[in-house]
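Let us practice reading a record.
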Amino acid sequence: MPRKRPGRTRTKHTNARPPLLLSTIAPQDINIREGETRSIVCPDCRSWRRLTGETRLVIREHCHSDRVAEGQTHERCPGSNQLVLLDQDVSQWGEAMLAADSTATGRRSARQHHKPRPAPARAIAHIASQRQPDGRSPWILREMAWASAALEARHTDARRVPPTGDAPTDGPAVPLTTLRPQRPTH
């Protein structure tokens, strides 16, 4: 497997500011672990940027990303090419990182408070098999309701049957054609 080469610093110029010291940077704002990409939070734009160089660490040149999104031209961030000095050992930085992490862990609650899960829905077969107060199951009640509705429908249909033969003389005329609404003509 080929070795991943670190990014090279393309210029020897820096931004003429005093170098940032590792001991003055908050441990959560820099990453210099072995095997990972070295990166730092830019002190000016507060975004994560790569550190280039093997022994002489420099914040890689970058732009203000929010100004480019507004349609302005690319402006170089003043934190670009900032020199970073490792004035303490990486192991000391790792201890400071663990200490910062342990204090943050101490502020968090040890117990997790989860919302109670809702009870699962009952199966339809169980819902359908519930008995009514009189002891009958729902499907029997449904059959009885359909039977009574069918009887009422038959009686109504019998009353609607047009009379056979001549029209009755003592009542209103029964319409024998289906009434359909007509569109008004202009």
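A brief commentary: The chain has a mean pLDDT of 76.
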